[in-house]
Design a protein that fits this description.
Layout: H1 2-34, H2 41-56, H3 73-77, H4 80-114, H5 116-121, H6 125-130, H7 132-170, H8 175-229, H9 235-262, H10 265-270, H11 272-282, E1 287-292, H12 299-320, E2 325-332, E3 335-342, H13 356-364, E4 369-373, E5 380-387
Parallel strand pairs: 1-2
Antiparallel strand pairs: 2-3, 3-5, 4-5
Helix pairs in contact: 1-2, 1-4, 1-7, 2-4, 4-7, 8-9, 11-12, 12-13
């Protein structure tokens, strides 16, 4: 049963391929006669695409400027898309049509020769008795006809593959355009991943703020009440309560810092200016902040800008020994520039484990750039350019 199913499937494929090539013969010759006029070329190309899709299941996407039929003749002749289409209609297509006619002739010869014995057996029995020598010759002719049929089947597949390859190369987008489309698709996919990651960070921030942080605050309050009211407890128990109270407050502080590092609520509610103002106020080193962003960018770009400033200020406090820091955020057209300058000891190196490598990757996730100027002795300047239109 499986072998019968496989045979039927192969037979159906042969019929489909033969019908596909046969349907292309008049279309190829019509295109050969009309294509030199250039004007009907897009319509002929559309008809060929429909043939491939309907009869072969092959989808050939149009080129980027396909269908622009209102342009002048000289401009259309100069178009690489038109030249490639003409190459198919005037060269590849007619060659395939001639090959198809040859294959159809082989099919006719093969079927005729291969069925000679059947025709002889249909003749009266007395004729076969009187002409026994013809049976041997007919057997040779039938065998030769079967070989011709096998050759026709093989050539049919070759022509179908050749026609499909030529059409995909000449009627569809060029390799350069395919690469450009691929890059665009990858850029869109990456932007979706970055946006999804930013949404996830905001969800985690909300969960921490509304869940774990509130529970820790409640625990700290209860421990504080216990510390104030349970005066009769032994000193050892009082010490344990004091220690637990202090640990709870420290955990709240650490959790607040973590939440602000993920995605502070003020950034989403009031924008970059308010979020950076609060960040600068919490930094131990004096920060001179300038924000000139009239139109807010996308939430993802805004979050990355905040992350850059937050991580850089953390590095300055830990490593730079600076006395003050200048932070400037400015949007010019479709680009937002973030500049951070400190008067510390300099010598910042992305390979030194100071978080600069993570900054570079985070900025590059939205096609941004980060440049670092940090000579030994300072000052250190970090400049980030972030595209606002994604």
């Amino acid at each position: 049963m499986p072998s019968t199913t496989g045979f039927r499937r192969r037979l159906g494929g042969i019929r489909r391929h033969t019908a596909f090539l046969t349907a292309g013969v008049p279309l190829h010759f019509m295109a050969f006669l009309l294509a030199p006029a250039v004007l009907p070329t897009p319509s002929l190309t559309t008809m060929q695409r429909l043939r491939f899709r309907a009869m072969l299941g092959v989808v050939i996407p149009p080129a980027s400027n396909a269908g622009r039929e209102t342009r002048g003749l000289r401009e259309r002749l100069a178009s690489p898309v038109t030249r490639r289409q003409l190459g198919y209609h005037l060269a590849a297509g007619p060659l395939v049509a001639l090959g198809t006619l040859a294959v159809l002739a082989l099919w006719a010869v093969g079927v005729t020769a291969g069925t000679v014995l059947l025709w002889i057996w249909a003749l009266p029995a007395e004729w076969r008795v009187d002409h026994r020598g013809y049976l041997n010759k007919a057997a040779y002719v039938s065998a030769a006809g079967l070989l011709v049929l096998l050759t026709a089947i093989w050539l049919t597949g070759v022509l179908v593959r050749a026609d499909a390859y030529a059409a995909s190369q000449l009627l569809g987008p060029s390799r350069t355009e395919q690469m450009r489309r691929r890059i665009e698709n990858l850029s869109e996919s990456r932007a979706g991943v970055v946006d999804a990651a930013d949404l996830e960070r905001r969800r985690i921030e909300r969960d921490l703020h509304d869940g774990a942080q509130q529970r820790l605050v409640s625990l700290a309050v209860n421990l504080g009440l216990a510390k104030a009211t349970l005066k009769h407890l032994p000193p050892e128990a009082q010490k344990v309560i004091d220690e637990a109270h202090r640990e709870a407050k420290e955990a709240i502080t650490e959790l607040q810092d973590l939440v602000r590092g993920l995605h502070p609520a003020v950034l989403e509610d009031r924008g970059l200016d308010a979020a950076l103002t609060g960040l600068a106020a919490r930094t131990p080193v004096p920060v001179r902040l300038t924000v000139a962003v009239e139109q807010r960018p996308s939430p993802t770009v805004e979050a990355i800008a905040y992350y850059v400033v937050s991580e850089t200020l953390t590095n300055v406090v830990k490593h730079a020994r600076a006395s003050h820091v200048g932070v400037s955020v400015e949007r010019r057209g479709d680009t937002m520039s973030v500049t951070i300058i400190d008067d510390g000891i300099g010598g910042a190196d992305p390979s030194g484990g100071t978080g600069l490598t993570g900054l570079v990757k985070r900025v590059a996730s939205v096609d941004g750039t980060l440049s670092l100027d940090s000579p030994v002795g300072g000052p250190t300047t970090i400049t980030v350019e972030l595209p606002c239109e994604r």
